[in-house]
Amino acid sequence: MNKMRVAYYPGCTLETTAKEFDITSRSVCAQLGIELVEIPDWNCCGASSAHETNDYLAIALPARNLVVAEQELGLNVVIPCAACFNRLKAAEKALLSRTYTEFDYEGKIKVYDLLSFLAQPEYVKRLKKKVVTPLKELKAVAYYGCLLCRPPEVTDHPQPENPMEMETVLKAIGVECLPWSYKTDCCGASLVVARPDIVHQLVKRLYDRALEVGAECIVTACPLCHANLDMRQKEINEKYHKHYYLPIFYFTELMALAMGIEGTETWAKGHFVDPRPLLEERKYL
Amino acid sequence: MSVASDFLKEVNRRSGEAVQLCFQCFKCSLGCPVTFAMDFLPHQLMRLVQLGRKEEVLDSHTIWVCASCETCTTRCPNEIDIAKVIDTLRQMALEEEKTAEGDVAAFHKAFLDSVSHFGRLCELELMFWYKLRTKRFLDDLWLAPELLKRKKLSFKPSRVERIGEIKQIFKKAAL
Ligand code: SF4
Ligand code: SF4
Predict the structure, then answer these.
(1) What is the pTM of this model?
(2) How far apart are CA B39 and CA A62, in angstroms?
(3) Which terminal residue of chain B has fewer beta carbons within 10 Å of its beta carbon, N or C?
(4) Percentage of chain A with pLDDT > 90?
(5) How many CA atoms lie within 13 A of B172 on its CB side?
(6) Domains of chain B (ranges, CATH numbers)
């Protein structure tokens, strides 16, 4: 198996609230023969707060990471977090069109989101060979959210209204992916802090639509989506007098589980909606 | 030159878009997930910009409850980057100290302040300043101990070593 080296941009949430995404991204890549080299001294991409407040900040913060990746590593960049990916792509576009000239960036490297990167045929082939516990009978909906795909002028996504990368990866590990029309609908993102009422409505609708097609869990590729769907489930149950039990997974967690990578307890314990009852029922644990 | 076209021109110049192209097809509003919380729907906001109704636009809740989900931008048949236009409108509103949704603006300010200090986000610092500014002390109180229990909050912020480079960026952004 030839080893691939790529630059890795974790981003702030992968060090804190989305630790599970970081741990499983690293372990899954290692198993697939992908060496992740963390971008030295990386900084925050500014997220939505930067682009909603200041045009320069919105480009300059993510741009610094691309410049470091190109000059110090010379490697293509892989980003698990959908929100960070979106900002680094926006910076890439701005740097290539020379909107700001102080950044020394030639564009010799490519910027990938981890999901699309792993959905490439060669890695799906490797993945299939690594599966020890196929997640048969697990019924899931793939939830991409906004920022992995939109707008396509920034993300270069070929099918922004109906992405399929997550289905490709999940099918390879045996998961049954159910079709639904909400895979790229919005969860409300950072509005959760100032306007939780808006997020509650959006997320409740996602739960209802997922359950309607028979899903027993939702799979994400975004720490903001994960936080809103996982951390707020209890609150939403209380507010609407419901009993939703929908574990929310990062796609990398299910990959790690199917590949027999140790440490399931560690990432499962980090969730607010404990996925272990479902995983035990299916005898994956 | 009328005031109306001055506002349209300024929005166009700053966003790099051509809002006059909007022909009111409603596609943006039909796909927008947060219309239930808006005072003007996205297509109405575009019309108000065309008409130069600056006060109503900059005082609107719409520009702050927009979740930046980019659905409208992706679907507009005239290729207007509506989300970008709304970014511009927020920035103009902030400059004129108009914030119909002050808490949303306070969140963004607290977020960026934290990034300017460490180069990375420190969630504890963000929540501290956000609560102090908005006086929403009781919000999400249950969350902090739950996050600590899961080792998802850190008292020792992760930081960028070459912090001078970050300070430089913030200086240039004039924030
Ligand atoms: S989709 Fe575009 S053209 Fe249609 S109403 Fe919205 S902004 Fe106007
Ligand atoms: S970017 Fe804002 S206005 Fe456009 S569809 Fe999303 S929430 Fe609505």
Answers:
(1) 0.94
(2) 33
(3) N
(4) 92
(5) 15
(6) 3-95 (1.10.1060.10), 102-173 (no CATH)
